[in-house]
Amino acid sequence: KKATGAPIKLGGIDMLIPGVDFTTIGKVAKAYYDCVNDNGGINGRPIKYTLYQEQANPAQQRTLAKKLIESDKVVGVVGNTSFTECGTNAKYYKQKGFYVIGAGVQADCYASPNLIMVNSGPRYSAIGAAQLLVKRGAKSLVIASPDGVAAYSDPGVGKGAKAAKIPFKSVPTKLPVTDANSAVLQLVQAAGKGGGVI
Q1: Positive/negative CA dihedral, 85, 89, 90, 94
Q2: Which of 69, 102, 116, 187 has the fewest C-beta atoms lying within 10 Å of its C-beta?
Q3: Helices (H), strands (E): how many in the chain?
């Protein structure tokens, strides 16, 4: 039976900028809640899931978090996915006593006890990729991370390259990427023959 009781309010904030669409996680969360609602909800109560999109703008991110919690009166924030939203709002969520489930990029996403990330993030993902490339015989490592997170994500790969005694280069990338083909060609050239690109 379809749920018909008073709704349980949840919400999320996903980033959508030219060339980067992080709205999938929120859309999947919404599809899941719609399915729950179609099958009785939670004790007969439907989940009302509100999903907002942001454009990597801190002022907008703060406004949307405040809107979810103070205006929409959600009881939980889930599905947040962004390059910068979790860093922008980490202190606010903690102050309001909200534990946010999301997928993040910045170091703040993994340092706050109120942010529960379901992904490894750029630092640990890049380290894992570097380990695999070194294991497969890469002669150098080049990493291209968004410029806003390169200082956090790239040093782990640099340490791996140093331990493997191979050259390393970090290429912080300004977003949005307008010419992906040229960017990839430059990275491949920087890595050289037998080099690995992350």
Answers
A1: negative
A2: 116
A3: 8, 9
CA angle 49, 33, 96 (to 5 degrees): 45
pTM of the model: 0.78
Instruction: Provide the 8-state DSSP code for 142.
Output: E
Q: What share of the chain is helix, strand, coil (3-state, %, to 5)?
A: 45, 25, 35
Q: Which of 166, 120, 176 is nearest to 143 (CA)?
A: 166
Task: Give tens-digit pLDDT for 69-87.
Answer: 999 999 999 999 998 899 9
- CA 6, 10, 15: angle at the middle one, nearest 5? 150
Is residue 22 within 8 Å of residue 181, measured between CB atoms? no
Nearest partner of 153 among 164, 167, 143, judged by Cα:
143
As a whole number of angstroms, the distance between CA 193 and CA 41 comes to: 56
What's the CA gap between 156 and 198, in Å, rounded?
12
Nearest-angstrom CA–CA distance, 131 and 89: 32
